[in-house]
Amino acid sequence: MAGTRALVIWAHPRTDSLTATVTSDVIGELTAQGFEVDELDLHREGIDPLVREADEPDWDDLDKQYTPEVMALAARTMAAAAVVFVFPVWWYSLPAIMKGYIDRVWNNGLFYGGGRRPGIAAARWIGLAGESAEAFRKREYDDLITRHLNIGIAGLCGIDDSQVVLLHDTLGDDITDPEAHFAALRARATAVATELAETLR
Predict the structure, then answer these.
(1) What is the CATH number of domain 5-200?
(2) How far is Cα 192 from Cα 162, in angstroms, rounded to an integer?
(3) Which of 123, 195, 192, 125 is nearest to 159 (CA)?
(4) Contact residues for 102 (Cβ-Cβ < 8 A; gap 6+)
(5) Alpha-helical segments (H) within 48-106
(6) pTM (predicted TM-score)
(7) In terms of Cα–Cα distance, which of 92, 90, 106 is closest to 9?
(8) Contacts of 165 (CB under 8 A, 6+ apart)
(9) pLDDT digits (tens, 9 = 90+) for 40-98
(10) What is the pLDDT of residue 123?
């Protein structure tokens, strides 16, 4: 694993959030497994999620040069063998800043289009959801999110090894032993990093 690069992309406005803690756990485990980890903190790095004209896809020009920010972020992303997204599930989807990063950076001619692919071997999506797994299954939100991320984004960009892991009940409502519950959530996220390392060996 020595020298294998992993890009951990995360989004949360607070650095004292559970999302931030889980991100730290994941980075720690990837580092312990021998990855060279690049952390992309979308909020602290001030990533602009808005697609303006300069970064709008040009379907007739696969070689379009996007803004320097987008080209730099694209190069940074494509330098990784694996990408790990960590995020709170808001409105049963990605936070706007993370979706905007994908809209702008995972762009036509760079990550898809004309058979072009980023060369990323694996993607992992760790979503922190306030609701229970049962609530998600009842309305099939779990399937919706999984299809969206694994097929609609990763699959379209040629990343066949993509997995979504949802950590439920992150608000701790109606949890009889919150300490054990949150420890289990963190352990599951750490296991994602361990399993990713085993996959890429």
Answers:
(1) 3.40.50.360
(2) 12
(3) 123
(4) 94, 153
(5) 68-78, 96-105
(6) 0.96
(7) 106
(8) 124, 125, 126, 127, 188, 189, 192
(9) 999 999 999 999 999 999 999 999 999 999 999 999 999 999 999 999 999 999 999 99
(10) 99
